[in-house]
Amino acid sequence: MSRKILLVDDEAGLRRNFRALIEDAGYTVREASNGAEGLSAYLSEQPDLVMTDMRMQSAKDGLRLVAAIREHDDAVPIIVVSGSGTLHDAIDAIRLGAWDYLVKPVQLGEELLIAIERNFERARLLRENRLYREKLEEMVSERTASLLASQRENQELQARLMQTQKLESLGRLAGGIAHDFNNLVTIMHAGTSELRAALAGAHADSIAMVEDALEQAVDLIRQIFVFAGRGSQAAVSCNLSDLIGGMEKLLRSAVTASIDLQLTLGTVPAIAGDPTQLRQVVMNLVLNAAQAMSHGGKIWIGVDARRLGPGPSDFAFLTGPVRSGEYVVLVVEDSGSGMDQETVRRLGDPFFTTKADGHGLGLTTVIGIVRGLGGALGIDSAVGRGTRVLAAFPTSPVPQEVPSPPRSILERPRGPNSAH
Ligand SMILES: Nc1ncnc2c1ncn2[C@@H]1O[C@H](COP(=O)(O)OP(=O)(O)OP(=O)(O)O)[C@@H](O)[C@H]1O
Ligand SMILES: [Mg+2]
Q1: CA dist., res. 55 & res. 60, Å (int)
Q2: Is the pTM higher than 0.70?
Q3: Which ligand sits nearest to residue 351's alpha carbon?
Q4: 411 pLDDT band (50/70/90 cuts)?
Q5: Staple 226 to which of 126, 141, 145, 231, CB 3.0 to 4.6 Å?
Q6: Measuring from atom 9 of ligand 1, which residue has the nearest CA?
């Protein structure tokens, strides 16, 4: 389609001449004989270029038209043609938004057509420039948004990593202490047995008291090993759905009657774990869910098999990025109070609790157990929306670089030489 030029001039003869010339050059022409007509033709026709006389019925009619058109569009080329050719007129026209200024009588032919082409070219460059700028701005804002998002993600990952490292070093420290303590208790236990034999029934009460205290110390060591992720002393092949199915009665008695407890236990492959510890995980998570609902609500326990990986997830993983693999996943979902960001951030810190009678050790223990089995623990929670906790256990466990706890005391040694 040929480009459209609006020609505004009060002299009909001049319009005719210009028109013939312009049409010969392949453009379409619309005509108007004064500023008002010119503006309405501009609005209805949307020409590609406007060429206007400067002085029509009134002295500045052409200039007013330039200003009016510029209010609508700053990218349409406008050429002003003047009979007087004073510098003043030229400045006025350009200041109001004309792109070009020609003096009558325009050397009909060359000069006019060159001016028209020059202005079309300028309009094209302007359009391209704008498109380029818009595209650039779009790209910049997309890039900025993605940079901000990855920066946020990075910060979250770093915070998680620090938390994981903190827990790991705490675990190592606790594990080390428990190990040495275990050796001492082993010696004390052996010594007590020898004393009992040597005393042949004398001081039986005192010896029983010492043995009782040693029993408690063993329990404590066991717990610390669990926290340190080294407690899987009895890892056997377990089916999590069967294990939880067997706990159903116990779980129902652990939550109040106003809580609707539902279980969806899918058919899942076996995992390697210590059944006592796995029950501890379930019990801790269910108790936390129940304690988040002072006026009753719903707890849903689900078990299924899934493939997980380190990619984005609804869950914030307290155990660091998830290793790709097949897992048996336990989800405990509650309709309780939910947690704010700050609480979620502190989860797993030993002794962090918001409860008057809490110890803040439930999740720390759960994390220790899950990590000890090469699994992952994730939280998805928001205030007023409730909480979902995901504990994932690998179906084909990755060999862990975690030494198992010393066995001596946990297996009841018979002599002092069995200490590590
Ligand atoms: N399902 C949940 N809904 C809301 N808040 C929770 C949930 N689970 C954990 N929390 C928050 O996390 C905190 C730490 O939980 P954690 O189980 O480690 O300790 P605790 O329950 O306070 O004490 P305990 O050692 O007796 O388990 C809780 O005090 C609570 O604020
Ligand atoms: Mg708890």
Answers
A1: 5
A2: no
A3: 1
A4: very low
A5: 231
A6: 288
